[in-house]
UniProtKB/TrEMBL annotation:
SUPFAM superfamilies: Protein kinase-like (PK-like)
Organism: Actinomadura fulvescens
Protein name: Protein kinase
InterPro entries the UniProt entry points to: Kinase-like_dom_sf (IPR011009)
Length: 275
């Protein structure tokens, strides 16, 4: 078995759901999980995510992903089983056939990407998610601006080419590791920054976002406030993690978007108090 995968104690944990495991192949999907693997086994094939069963963000996110799954299928692959002991907590999903999406200008995937964001935007907010308020951008905004990010729409937010998968007849949004509820425009806004990072100019990126109902119905002031908060957030993260090239790229894209919207952002202005 690969040294990057756990040993016999883990296969014993999942055995009631898998039967005998013939192969466990690690994958690059699910960056926040200690284990992500395609498991071929006596009971079929599963995509397995697992984290150490210790209090903290990674455990909380995996639990949240399991709770939201029934409400986001078939946009997301279905959760088939869950397993937990004192060492591990694991989720076993159906295996889908899809490739990472292409966000670059001229990509044939762009209409499918917009379609899946619109499908996400049509999801209702289940009772289980009522307490999952979106707060990630709040400390990078004034209290008044942070209020503009609130709402009753179920949000995905983890929009990137690795998480939107394109199949021959379907598309999926995978890795629902931290769904929340807030203003509906936030998901299309996250797409705008990703499109700019992939090579789009800000104007064309917003033109694609305008294909989403959640964007066209949004208040311009709210989008401007989000663009500013998003830039402050990525600047802070990039400054604290100078070797993370992807964060540098996102900060650059966020800056380009804020400049396009003519949103002034003081580099040193950060609202650190959590709200």
């Amino acid at each position: 078995m690969s040294p990057s995968l756990p040993g016999s104690e883990f296969t014993a944990l999942i055995h009631p759901h898998t039967g005998d495991v013939s192969e466990m192949q690690p994958t690059s999907r699910g960056n926040n999980s200690a284990v992500t693997a395609l498991v071929d086994c006596e009971k079929g094939a599963f995509f397995v995510k697992a984290v150490p069963n210790r209090p903290g963000g990674r455990r909380d996110s995996l639990i949240r992903e399991g709770l939201i799954n029934p409400f986001v299928v078939p946009i997301s692959p279905a959760l088939r089983w869950q397993a937990e002991d004192s060492e591990w907590i694991a989720l076993g999903f159906e295996v889908i056939e899809g490739r990472r999406s292409d966000f670059t200008p001229g990509s044939a995937d762009l209409p499918a990407i917009i379609d899946i964001l619109n499908r996400i935007g049509e999801l209702y907010l289940p009772e289980i998610a009522q307490g999952w308020h979106e707060t990630r951008w709040n400390r990078f905004a004034t209290e008044a601006d942070a209020e503009l990010f609130q709402g009753q729409s179920l949000l995905y937010t983890d929009i990137n080419p690795d998480n939107l998968l394109i199949g021959q007849i379907s598309t999926w949004a995978v890795d629902w590791s931290w769904p929340t509820h807030g203003a509906a425009f936030i998901d299309p806004a996250c797409l705008v920054v990703q499109l700019i990072a992939a090579g789009h100019d800000a104007g064309p990126a917003e033109t694609w976002a305008a294909e989403c109902a959640a964007w066209t119905n949004a208040d311009r002031q709210a989008i401007d406030a989000f663009a500013a908060a998003n830039l402050r957030m990525y600047r802070r993260f990039a400054d604290r993690n100078p070797d993370a090239t992807w964060l540098q790229a996102m900060a650059t894209a966020a800056h380009e978007w804020a400049a396009y919207r003519d949103v002034p952002v003081d580099r040193d202005q950060v609202y650190d108090a959590p709200r």
